[in-house]
Each structure stands twice: as C-alpha cells, then as structure tokens.
Amino acid sequence: MSFHNLREPSFPMEAQNLQLSSVSPSGKLQAIVRKVPGTKGQEDKQFLEIWSTSHLVKSIDILAGEKHGKICEDSQFGCLAWSASEKSLLYVAEKKLPKAVSYFERQNTDVLSDKPPPIKGNKFEFKDNWENSLFLNVVLCLPFLT
Predict the structure, then answer these.
(1) What gap in Å lies between CA 106 and CA 2, rounded to an integer?
(2) What is the DSSP annotation of 115-139?
(3) 92: which residues sit within 8 A by CB, 6+ positions away?
(4) Regarding beta strands 89-94 and 18-23, do their DSSP bridges make them parallel or antiparallel, or are they unpaired?
(5) Bridge partners of 23?
(6) Which PANTHER family has this protein been placed in (predicted)?
(7) How many Å apart are CA 93 and CA 100, to the nearest integer?
(8) CA spacing 20 to 30 A to 51: which of 87, 91, 129, 140?
(9) Contact 58, 86 (CB under 8 A)
C-alpha cells in the first residue's frame, strides 16, 4: 500500500470574500487576503490571515496599521508570495500618501509625531486614479510574521 497520494488536510477557513491566497513552500501554512464589507457608510476592511491546517494563526487588519493602503488584488499587480523561511510574505499595496491640507489650515506644532508632516496647498489638487482600475502609487511590502 502506497501513501504517496495522501494529501495534506485542507485549511479550515471560510472561503468567503477572499481576494488573494498563497500556500507556504512547506504546505503547512496558507496566507489569504480577505475583504470585509463596511457597514453603514464605513469603509471596507482588509485582513491578512495566516492559517495552519488546524486553526487561524494570525489575523492582521491591514488598514489599522496605517503603514500603507489596501493590498492590490488585481491580476496585474496583485501577488502574495512566501519567503523560503516562511517568516515573511511579499505583497503589493497602495502607497500611503502624506495628508494634504489647505494653506489656511492651522497645524498643531506642539505634538511630536512619527507621521510625515502634511503637505500645504495640495488639499484640492486633482489626483488621477485611472478610474480605480489600476494603482498609481504602489509599494512592495515584506512584513515579518514571527
């Protein structure tokens, strides 16, 4: 009797609202990007989830960290790739742009922050977004999962 045809058990995740998915090189973990629709006028959320064959290992709210925008899930730019060590993932996301303010808005200079300072005078500047079908400003992200 040969056991070569036995498969690893499937991952116990809900297959609803999946945008991207990638199985780790060992086959023991799976990373998925899930979109959770917003309620009553709130913006949609995006989660990066890491699953083992038996349970959810980690769930990260992508937009809560404010490091970057949404993860690109389209067929041109979207990717989700594991490192060989399975300690990090590579994906493409929208670049977080500095806040634009009017020339007439006052800034609070007393508070020290690690955020970039707002750009004065660009509040009403037109930014072409290619009808939301493609992303203008993207950044490659490689977060460590350990």
Answers:
(1) 73
(2) SPPPEET-TT-----GGGTS-SSEE
(3) 71, 72, 77, 78, 79, 135, 138, 139, 140, 141
(4) unpaired
(5) 30
(6) ACYLAMINO-ACID-RELEASING ENZYME, SERINE PEPTIDASE S9 FAMILY MEMBER
(7) 20
(8) 140
(9) no
Per-residue pLDDT tens over the stretch 74-113: 887 788 999 999 898 998 888 877 777 776 666 665 555 5
Q: Are 100 and 122 contacting, i.e. CB atoms less than 8 angstroms apart?
A: yes
The set of residues, in sequence order, having a beta carbon less than 8 Å from that of 56 and lying 6+ positions away, is: 13, 49, 50
pLDDT in tens, 23-50: 999 988 999 999 988 888 888 899 999 9
Residue 139 pLDDT > 60: yes
Chain position carrying tokens 């037109």 = 126
Other CB atoms closer than 10 Å to residue 141's CB: what's the count? 17
- DSSP symbols for 14-52: --SSEEEEEE-TTSSEEEEEEEE--STTPPPEEEEEEEE
> What are 26's two structure tokens?
């060992």
In 3D space, the residue among 73, 61, 75, 59 whose CA is nearest the CA of residue 20 turns out to be: 73
| Polymer length in residues for the chain | 146
